[in-house]
């Protein structure tokens, strides 16, 4: 079935140009803060893959790049509260200055669990850089050091963020039409 973007997206919340210039600003700031340090950026898969690809190319300091897989969404658009974490093979946080790159912070549970794991495994420092932040939804005390855009409590897709594995390739962030998930019901096993 061919779907038009306007069938799926209620409103473009953040345009491609806005994303580009915000990432350049964030990369400048991160570059200044981590100048002279041995920085390891950790991309939380799957949702951050596009953000991470753009961010590491915008950074003008040397970085190590690693990946971690986390899933917390049990059904459709609601987090299950339980976080599954799988580290990339060979990744050892011990002694590293780690900057986590995440697509969106919602309740904050996913990043709280990841941060705890990294610190338990001996990371020297752990900070968070999130592309999007929905502070209204927070249920834990978590404050990302770098935030691309603060957004309202709406389910969004695009620029890496999916709904049922789709729409990640949109170059913008859009608010998904609620009827998209209301009609289809839910068959999602994982959400990041
Ligand atoms: P948290 O543990 O902070 O509640 O959830 C973070 C994860 O929930 C994100 O990495 C993302 O996968 C998912 N998430 C939260 N809000 C949204 C949203 O509006 N759209 C999409 N596509 N995923 C979301």
Secondary-structure map:
Elements: H1 5-8, E1 9-14, H2 16-33, E2 39-45, H3 49-58, E3 63-75, E4 78-87, E5 97-105, H4 109-120, E6 125-133, E7 146-150, E8 156-157, E9 173-176, H5 178-184
Parallel strand pairs: 2-3, 2-5, 5-6, 6-7
Antiparallel strand pairs: 1-9, 3-4, 8-9
This protein binds guanosine-5'-monophosphate.
Guanosine-5'-monophosphate binds at residues 47, 72-73, 79, 102-110, 155-157, 161-163, 191-192.
User: How much strand?
Assistant: 25-35%
What strand line-up does the widest sheet have?
4-3-2-5-6-7
Number of helices: 5
Q: What's the gyration radius in Å?
A: 16 Å
What is the SS-derived class? alpha/beta
How many angstroms does the end-to-end distance come to? 25 Å
> What's the main sheet like?
6 strands, mixed
| Secondary-structure element pattern, one letter each | HEHEHEEEHEEEEH
Bound compounds, please? guanosine-5'-monophosphate
Round the mean pLDDT to the nearest integer and report it.
90
Structure description:
It is a single chain. This protein is 27% helix and 34% strand. It has helices at 5-8, 16-33, 49-58, 109-120, 178-184, and strands spanning 9-14, 39-45, 63-75, 78-87, 97-105, 125-133, 146-150, 156-157, 173-176. The chain starts with a helix and ends in an 8-residue tail after the last helix. Residues 47, 72-73, 79, 102-110, 155-157, 161-163, 191-192 line the site of guanosine-5'-monophosphate.
Summarize the structure.
By secondary structure, the chain is an alpha/beta fold. Helices cover 27% and strands 34% of the residues. The strands form two sheets. A six-stranded mixed beta sheet has the order 4-3-2-5-6-7, with helices on both faces. The protein has a three-stranded antiparallel beta sheet with strand order 1-9-8.
């Amino acid at each position: 079935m061919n779907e038009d973007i306007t069938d799926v997206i209620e409103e473009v919340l953040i345009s491609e140009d806005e994303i580009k210039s915000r990432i350049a600003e964030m990369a400048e700031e991160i570059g200044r803060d981590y100048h002279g340090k041995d920085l390891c950026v950790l991309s939380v898969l799957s949702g951050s893959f596009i953000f991470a690809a753009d961010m590491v190319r915008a950074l003008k300091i040397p970085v190590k790049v690693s990946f971690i897989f986390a899933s917390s969404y049990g059904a459709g658009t609601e987090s299950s509260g339980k976080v599954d974490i799988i580290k990339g093979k060979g990744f050892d946080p011990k002694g590293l200055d780690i900057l986590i790159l995440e697509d969106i912070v919602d309740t904050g549970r996913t990043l709280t669990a990841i941060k705890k794991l990294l610190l338990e495994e001996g990371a020297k420092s752990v900070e968070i850089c999130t592309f999007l932040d929905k502070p209204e939804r927070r249920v834990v005390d978590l404050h990302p050091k770098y935030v691309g855009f603060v957004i309202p409590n709406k389910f969004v897709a695009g620029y890496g963020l999916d709904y049922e594995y789709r729409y990640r390739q949109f170059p913008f962030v859009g608010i998904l039409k609620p009827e998209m998930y209301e009609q289809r019901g839910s068959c999602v096993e994982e959400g990041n």
